[in-house]
Amino acid sequence: MEHAVSTDPQADTAAAEDPATPEAEPSAAAEAEADPAADDDRTATDGAEPDGSGTAEPAAAEDGTGPVAAHGEAGDGDPGAAPPVSGRGGEGESPAGPASEADLGTGPAPTDDAAGSEAEAGSGADAEAGAGPEGTAEPAAEAQAAPALSEAQAELAAQKIERERIARRKAEREAPVEAGAKLSGKAADLLAAVRAVESGAKPSAVYFDEAPAAPRRPAPAPAAPRPAAPAPTAAAAPSADAVEGVRAVLARGGAPEALAAPAAAALGEDAAGQLTENPWRLLSLPAVRPAQADGFARALLGPGAGPGDERRTAVLVGWLLAQAGLKGHTALEAPVLEKALAQYGVPVPAEALEQAVGEGSVLVFQEPLGPPAGEDTEDAEQPVRVLVGLEGAAMAEESLADGLARLAAGPFGDAARWERAAGSAPSPSAAELIRAVADHGLVTHTGGEAARAEPAALATAARELGLRVCVAAHAPGGGPDPVTVAGLLSGAEGPGRDADGQFALDLLVVLDAPQLDVETAAALVECVPDGARLVLSGDPGVLGSAGAGRVFADVLAARTCPQLVSRTPDPGPLGELVSGIGIGELNQVDAPGKEVVIVPVKDAGEAVHRAVQLVAESVPRAFGIPADTVQVITPGHGGPAGTRALNAALKERLNPGPGRFGGFDPGDRVVHVPSAGRALAARVVSADAEGLHLDRAGERIVVPKELVESRVRHGWAVTAHQAVGTRWPAVVVVLPGDAAQALSRDWVYTAFGRGERHLSVVHGVDQALPHAVAEVPAKPRTTRLTGLLTALATAGAQPR
């Protein structure tokens, strides 16, 4: 064994992913983490891994001889190439990454989207199923041991409230043009802007929105007693008649009848009529791909169901944007979207996009790109990009920008008391943070693991000043307070709320801020009252959010609030190694205490064997760390050294048993996924008629038996997205040779940074590791938040 890492990168470089560039499909074994929350790859049949042959084809071919082909009349493009908005999406601080990494154009579609979005790469034979952060069904809530609301139910209720707020914002917009009508007004202007930008012509000034007005701060309302948490409104199950009607339509189109209930739930009581009128609405189901919907449409409509059918193109625009959302994008540039439409056989993509805008199914925006060319002339040309997005992400992003600007705008006093608190801070960086918060309502703070002490010092100082403070982290145990962001939003943790539904606090510190997606961040900021302060703290080098957006990075890029960069380095050999990775260098580090150990392996089988040996024997013997506190991290769920294979081997060694409770035994380490994007460590206690009983840090949780398959996974081995926000005494990172394509700098940075005392790297990727660190940055995401914040700050600075 060695104590150093090779630093010779390969000569070739890997550019940041362009969402318009198709990407070759990686092997199944090299699949990257497809789900930041779970490795749910079950199909509707038996939980078998989707491998291309296991995906149910929704429709027969036109001649009735078999399932829909990969290509069809609709022209889905080459099955080996993804459409322009597909690709790995970005595991990092730029698109989701986090979000689903499934190939938009090829491979089987996930059929169980309840476990969360697939966030770390991985289309192909072993693509992981999962719901994306946008446009997918809300997960069902788990039953708790007590009759009180479950955390997942309460979180869904809080998200419903935020959606209602966003809906009110949506109602303020102009009503959409009726389908088929000629565009007029702003929609027509913006579509004309698309054409002008593409042709290189100068866009008219009419295309540009006026600068948004700076938000005004109303006088804070007096605090009111905390109301009871809102009761969640469960989505009504479709009626038996609705399901039966859909089943009949599916049968006529040659689609599996198993899709009847999901289709009725997704489309409502009139689902049968909708599918009859527009068979492409079947794409509302995560299990369905365009080629399958095309075959279904041909079976119902006949040869006239061509690729240019307006019903098809309208649905396809929304589907492509939803797929982009799974990869972290909140919008797409119009030319990128048109290129994707062309790859799916749409004859005139520009007209299809115009139709979608006219129907109001998508929104179109323009965003300035830098200062106008030739500012000294009145007719200076303003470079812009035209973006298209779905209403949900667009409204959440605008609501978030308004909320952040609202918090940043207010005056703050009592500087003398804050200065005294800064004088007694435990470090210079903590003192700087305290001083910044004294005078500002919105502050960002960046740093590594050691820097987390600085927000903790700020919270202590604020409490000593008599302020109501809450520190919320992404995962349990991630901060000084036992509060998570999800628990805070659900009302299960943290302070109460006033009569207006806002948090009863004066300072909110959010740790692990890179894990905030736009919808979560919008809901959080909406609940912070006027006059309160918000601190977003995190490490910009880690993997980004599972949901759409890049909130923390966008706020940093906008530079509209104080940005504190910690000067506290992470200590020891592990800190030195991870710090180097953060700047693209895989350095040799001196590890006299064997803090870093490299274990070379030749193949996946040896990688699994060595990983089990390290967890069960070597690490406990050398460091006195119990095997139950050693965590294994690997790039993907599938393949011979993915999480499933590793968990099977680790269970056999550490807690063998027949798996009598749906594959689990008492004592098994598991990952519980109460909602999309969340992965919580737990341990199996027992099972009965109610479901599987888990213990999570002393809290008893009951997962109903019908949800066990989609909500619970063995947890000795996890993906880096599942591990983010949590640290363990020792970590074993397994890098099998076929995982090279899944590696990137932010993935390596995250995985290697999860160990507190020891890191073992089971290394089978040769020069792919230094190459990924030096040459493969996080994947970019297309978002609007930076531009929105900049515009609001500019408007606020203008004299009234």
Q: Rg from C-alpha positions?
A: 26 Å
User: In the CATH hierarchy, what is the architecture of the domain at 399-569 at level 2?
Assistant: 3-Layer(aba) Sandwich
Q: How many helical stretches? A: 24
Overall 3D geometry? globular
Q: How much helix, percentage-wise, in residues? A: 25-40%
The span between the termini is 68 Å
Strand adjacency order, main sheet: 5-6-7-4-8
What is the mean predicted local confidence, pLDDT?
A: 78
SS-based class = alpha/beta
Ranges with pLDDT <50 over ≥5 residues?
1-148, 173-184, 201-234
Percentage of β-strand residues: 5-15%
Number of strand elements:
18
Can you describe this structure?
Residues 1-155, 213-238 are annotated as: Disordered. This is ATP-dependent RecD2 DNA helicase-like helix-hairpin-helix domain-containing protein. Residues 242-330 form the ATP-dependent RecD2 DNA helicase-like helix-hairpin-helix domain. It comes from Streptomyces venezuelae. Residues 215-230 have a biased composition (Pro residues). The chain is of the alpha/beta class and 800 residues long. It has a domain at 399-569: P-loop containing nucleotide triphosphate hydrolases (Rossmann fold, 3-Layer(aba) Sandwich), CATH 3.40.50.300. The chain is built from 24 helices and 18 strands. The protein has a five-stranded parallel β-sheet with strand order 5-6-7-4-8, sandwiched between helices. It has a five-stranded parallel β-sheet with strand order 9-18-17-10-16. Strands 14-13-12-11-15 form a five-stranded antiparallel β-sheet. The radius of gyration is 26 Å and the shape is globular. The model is unreliable at 1-148, 173-184 and 201-234 (pLDDT under 50).
